[in-house]
Specification:
The chain is mostly helical. The protein has 13 helices and six strands. The protein folds into two domains: about 80 residues, Arc Repressor Mutant, subunit A (Orthogonal Bundle), CATH 1.10.10; about 150 residues, no CATH class. Strands 1-2 form a two-stranded antiparallel sheet. It has a two-stranded antiparallel ribbon with strand order 3-4. A two-stranded antiparallel ribbon has the order 5-6.
Length: about 290
């Protein structure tokens, strides 16, 4: 076994646990193993990675562990936790009490958009914090500044809370399975088709479970963006109370009323906010990405 695969096993406890399970099955029989024989104990994702790394070799209708003696020696040094195999519970996204509280708060804030009393309460409360900013800057600049800050912060939250590496790994594995499944069907290998379809179903289940990983950062993002957006809404609909100009002058366009509707309920200030959020947030995220890479 080469040094690269030794390092891979040492660094990846889940993969080492999967190899240990496969090796135990092989040693308990004739030295070979099949996917149906270990499907209940080894996740499809880890089975696929064993094949991709060459730790498991195709031997026709079955598979064999590449250099089982060396594999056992490495596993003895790694001492993989048997609980790491299975559904990879440690890697699956889970919502803590704090995450659930954030989700409830996000839903409450989203609901307040439709309740004038709640919207005004949030807006007036936020005005105590953001009012000095709005008083010192033009309304257009205030909206742009908040859009950039909130968009950038949301990008950072998504980057920190979302397991992009696992999502990319599952996506890559799904593409590999599709290619191999197509090849197996072309050569009428029914055993391989059955095995690959089982792996594909397992990975699809993993993708559904990972959907919660997308919702978790969204809850925190809403907690950040909703109060700011509610405050801006309050400023736009209650200019007398908020001391906010009702219109501004844009180059080549002229005087534009902030509450003018462009399409359905979408107002001018809303479009200005989303444009600034998209452009500024993207720039902030790219800058953070460059700093992280460096």
């Amino acid at each position: 076994m080469d040094s690269e695969r030794r390092r891979t096993l040492s660094d990846d406890e889940a993969l080492a646990a999967a190899l240990s399970t496969v090796l135990d099955h092989a040693e308990a029989t004739d030295g070979t193993v099949t996917w149906p024989g270990v499907a209940d104990d080894v996740p499809a994702e880890q089975w696929g990675r064993l094949l991709e790394t060459g730790l498991l070799v195709d031997a026709g209708e079955c598979f064999v562990v590449d250099d089982p003696t060396a594999a056992r020696e490495v596993l003895d040094d790694v001492e993989p936790d048997p609980d790491a195999v299975g559904d990879e519970a440690a890697d699956e996204p889970s919502w803590s009490l704090q995450d659930k509280a954030a989700g409830v708060g996000a839903l409450a804030l989203m609901a307040s958009y439709q309740i004038p009393g709640a919207r005004d309460a949030v807006g007036s409360t936020m005005h105590a914090v953001l009012g000095p900013v709005e008083a010192a800057l033009p309304f257009a600049v205030t909206v742009a500044l908040l859009a950039v800050v909130v968009g950038g912060a949301s990008g950072v939250l998504n980057r920190r809370l979302r397991d992009t590496e696992r999502a990319d790994r599952v996506k890559s594995r799904m593409g590999t399975i599709r290619d191999r499944l197509s090849d197996a069907r072309e050569r009428d290998d029914e055993a391989a088709v059955e095995r690959l379809e089982a792996e594909q179903r397992e990975l699809m289940s993993d993708q559904l479970l990972m959907f919660t990983d997308m919702l978790r950062p969204m809850a925190y993002t809403v907690l950040l963006t909703a109060p700011v957006f509610l405050w801006l809404t309050w400023l736009a609909v209650a200019p007398a109370a908020a001391i906010t100009p009702t219109a501004t002058v844009f180059p080549f366009v002229g005087r534009v009323v902030w509450t003018a509707r462009l399409l359905g309920p979408i107002q001018v200030w809303t479009v200005w906010y989303f444009v600034c959020s998209l452009v500024g947030g993207t720039a902030v995220r790219r800058a953070i990405g460059r700093v992280t890479a460096a």
